[in-house]
Every structure is written in structure tokens, then in C-alpha cells.
Design brief:
alpha/beta, two-stranded antiparallel sheet
């Protein structure tokens, strides 16, 4: 595998056990990349040592800058024009299909897409997708007929989460790459996801970040803007669809989303605890 024209960039914040699990999963993949770095928020010595031990250079911040600014720093610090961006809990769960990263890099270099999503989140069940679509070929529910554009935004995710053959969707909505491992569509039919994406550096810094920063009001996480909320929230979702950004989605997820630890005071830890209690109550 040759990914020398790309940077592998990870973002972490005081979660050394989670980071080590992810770095260990990437051990065989790391040498394929021409550049690799870990953004260590708050500069936790244990995380810096882990990153360097696994062959990554480090970019250290003095404080937690949040997900949006942290991802921006990771991409801005990359030495290559294409960047595979992971959060510290995006461990590699499907090494067998890691050749799809080469396919994605070729699509990026040829200018066929601006980014490719690889995380399991695009394949998981989502109540919003099921709210607008049913059956296959997909049929609009009543809500899908009333909110046409919003339903379109969840069309591809609906097909992926039910393992429906996306190749049977109309060609103006989706097509398959030459290797047939990546579905190519545009931002009318797929929302943004932070989890495991391969992106053109210039697109992320010059298009996506300014779009996120234009959001008027978004939910913050630990006091900082969160990129998914900024792009998919009420303020920007219509602009996202109108832009028709070209994007790819791996038909087989490569990276998971599983935490081993979180820093004290992390709002997401409290949210996960509340969700667990609700599940137990049910």
C-alpha cells in the first residue's frame, strides 16, 4: 500500500488508553503514510510519549481547543495535500479493506471528490434516516414527502445502514468508483461526519472551516464549537446542501468509535452516562 502523498493525523485529549488502542490498531498502516502526526491537546506527557513511540510527530496545545479547532489544527499541521483525519477513538476495525484508502486517495488526487468518509457512523442505524425513508427501492414516508430536501440529505445513509445496494439508486444521486468500493455522491444526499475522513487539505481549510465558523448558533461541547453541529445544524444545513460538495463514502466501514477513557469533566462522559441510565430504565 502506498499512501506517501498523504498525512495520517489524529486528535486526542487526555485519553491515553483510548489513544494507545487506536495507535496499536494502526501499527501496520502507519508506514504507508508519508507523514503522521498526533495533536495532543493540553500536552499530556503520557499521550506525547505514546505518539512518539508509535512513530508520530506531535503537535501540542497548552489547553483543550475543542473538536472543531483541534481538527483544523490537525489538518493545518499536515505536510501533505491529502489528510486522513481520525479522533483518538477511531481505531482500525477492518484492516482487510484498508486498500480502500488508496482508492480514496486516487479520487482526491483526481479531483473527483473533496473528501471520503470511512467511519462506522455512516452505516449505523439513525432514526432520522428511518423517519424519511422506508423499504427498497427507498420510498419516502409522509415526512419525507413534506420535507423533501431534508429527506434527500439522509438518503445514502438510509441505504448504507440497511445494506441496500446503493448502485441501484439513480445515477444523478450516487455512482460507484471504478474500484466499486466507494459510493460517490454530493452533499445534498449525505450529512457531514467527523469520524474518520480522508480530505483535501485546501478544501477543509478554505471551504469547510469557514462554513463552520459562519454558524450563528450551535451547541458547544466543553465550551467549544463542534464541527458536526456547525455544519449539520439549523444555521448551515441548507448551505451545505446547496454547495453540492463532491464526497465519497466507503461501502465498508474501516474505523470504529469506542472510548476506553475520558478526561475528568468531559461533557460527553456525562452524556454517555445519562444515555446508559436511560437504556437501563427501558
Amino acid at each position: 500500500m502506498n499512501l506517501q502523498d498523504a498525512t495520517l493525523a489524529l486528535l486526542t485529549w487526555r485519553a491515553p488508553r483510548t489513544l494507545e488502542r487506536t495507535l496499536a490498531s494502526l501499527r501496520d498502516l502507519r508506514p504507508a503514510f508519508g507523514d503522521a502526526l498526533v495533536v495532543c491537546q493540553c500536552g499530556a506527557p503520557e499521550e506525547v510519549e505514546l505518539a512518539e513511540r508509535y512513530g508520530y510527530r506531535t503537535c501540542v496545545t497548552l489547553e483543550n481547543v475543542g473538536i472543531q479547532s483541534g481538527l483544523e489544527l490537525a489538518v493545518r499541521s499536515a505536510d501533505r495535500k491529502q489528510v486522513l483525519v481520525l479522533e483518538n477513538d477511531n481505531c482500525l476495525v477492518n484492516a482487510r479493506d484498508s486498500h480502500l484508502l488508496e482508492e480514496a486517495l486516487e479520487l482526491l488526487q483526481r479531483g473527483e471528490v473533496e473528501f471520503v468518509q470511512f467511519g462506522d457512523s455512516v452505516h449505523q442505524s439513525d432514526r432520522r434516516a428511518k423517519k424519511y425513508w422506508q423499504g427498497f427501492p427507498p420510498r419516502r414516508t409522509l415526512a419525507g414527502r413534506i420535507r423533501w430536501a431534508r429527506a434527500d440529505a439522509w438518503l445514502l445513509r438510509y441505504c448504507l445502514m440497511h445494506s441496500h445496494p446503493v448502485a441501484q439508486l439513480p445515477s444523478e444521486k450516487v455512482r460507484l468508483s471504478a474500484e466499486r468500493g466507494i459510493a460517490i455522491t454530493d452533499s445534498r444526499f449525505m450529512p457531514w461526519s467527523n469520524r474518520a475522513f480522508f480530505v483535501r487539505r485546501d478544501f477543509f481549510l478554505e471551504e469547510l472551516i469557514p462554513l463552520a465558523e459562519s454558524a450563528r448558533s450551535i451547541r458547544r461541547v466543553n465550551g467549544h464549537p463542534e464541527l458536526e453541529q456547525a455544519i449539520n445544524g439549523r444555521s448551515n444545513r441548507k448551505r451545505w446542501r446547496r454547495k453540492r460538495y463532491r464526497l465519497g463514502v466507503s461501502l465498508r466501514p474501516l474505523f470504529g468509535h469506542e472510548r476506553q477513557d475520558r478526561p475528568a469533566g468531559d461533557e460527553k462522559a456525562l452524556h454517555e452516562m445519562q444515555q446508559g441510565r436511560q437504556a437501563e430504565a427501558c
